[in-house]
Amino acid sequence: MRAARLRVVLLPGVAILTLALGAVAHAHLPKFVLVKNGATQYKVRTFGATVGDVLRDGRVAVAANDRVYPAREALARTGMTVTVRRAFPVRLFADGHPRVLMTAAQSVGEFLSESGVTVRPSDHVYPSADAPLWSGATVRLVRVETRVVTIEERVPFARISQVDPAMPRGRTRLIQQGRPGIKLRRIAVTTADGFVVKRQEIEAVIARPAQDRIVSVGTRRVIASRGQFTGKEVLEMEATGYAPWHGKGVDDITAIGMKAGYGVVAVDPRIIPLRSVLFIEGYGRAVAGDTGGAIKGHRIDLGFPTAREAYRFGRRTVRVYILSSPTAAR
Q1: Which of 206, 236, 209, 205 is nearest to 220 (CA)?
Q2: 328, burial (CB in 10 Å: exposed 0-12, middle 13-18, buried 19+)
Q3: Sign of the CA dihedral 56, 58, 61, 66?
Q4: Which of 28, 164, 300, 323 is an S-S bond match for 277, by CB 3.0 to 4.6 Å?
Q5: pLDDT tens-digit series, residues 123-135
Q6: Structure pTM?
C-alpha cells in the first residue's frame, strides 16, 4: 500500500518538471531575423531576447541619429524584420539661424518636430510638412506674423473767407483759428521673416474733427474826400523796399517786363491790378509793375536803385492812392 501511494504522489512532480525543461529548451532555440540595414539586408541568427540583441549579434552599429524599427526594447521573434534607417544631413533655415542637422526622419514635419522647431498655423514650410525627406534636402520655415498698428494722421482744415462790406477792401480779420483734425487708421501688417508683405486697412476713425479757419475779408472801398487825390481810392499798406539783383530770384526785369528800380513797385494783383498808376506817401508816384512771393494782401514792395537805399527805407505803414487802373479793382 505504501509503494502504490508513493507512485501517485510523484507523478504530478514529474509532469511539472517535464514542462519546465521544455520551456527552457524552447528559450534557447535560435531566432532568425531579417535585418534591413540601409540599402543592404541579411538574416541574423540570434539567441537574444530583444531587437537590441539582434543588432548586437548581427554586429550592426547604430549611430545616435539613426532609427531602428521596431524599437530596440521590442521582443525579438523568428521571422520578424528589423529596419535600420540611417541618418542623413538636412539643411534647415528657421528663425534666422541656418544649420545642418543629421536626421532619419521620413517627412519634413517629422524632421521639424524632432529638431524642436515649433510650427504655428500661420507659418509656411517649404517643402510642405507632409513631403518626404531626402539626404541633402533644404527645409525652410517662414515665420508669418500679422499685427495691428494704429497710425495717427492729420486731417487738413478748410480755409473759408467771409465777405465783410463794413471793412476796408483787402483788409482781413481772423474769425476762427484753423486746427487740423486727427484720423486714426488701424492697419493689419503682415510680415514674413520680418519683411512686410502685406498692409490692409481695417478701419479709419476720426478722433478729432478739423476746425475750419475762417477769415473775414473787407470789400468796402475807401475814397479820399479831400486833398489833391480827392475821389481816388486809398489803401493803407505795409511797405518795404527792394533793389535789383538783391535777394533770391530778384533781377532787373519785372513781371510785366519793366526795368526794375525807383518808381516800380511790387503788389498783390488781387488788391492792386498790375500797370496801375499809384501815389505812395513818403515815396512818390509809381507803377504797379511787379509781384513777389511774400507780397500778399496789403503788402507793397517799393523799388530803389540800391540795396542801401532799400534798407534805409525799412518797413513802414503808408497810404497808397490808386490814381488809375487798367481794370476795375475788385
Answers
A1: 236
A2: exposed
A3: negative
A4: 323
A5: 999 999 999 999 9
A6: 0.53
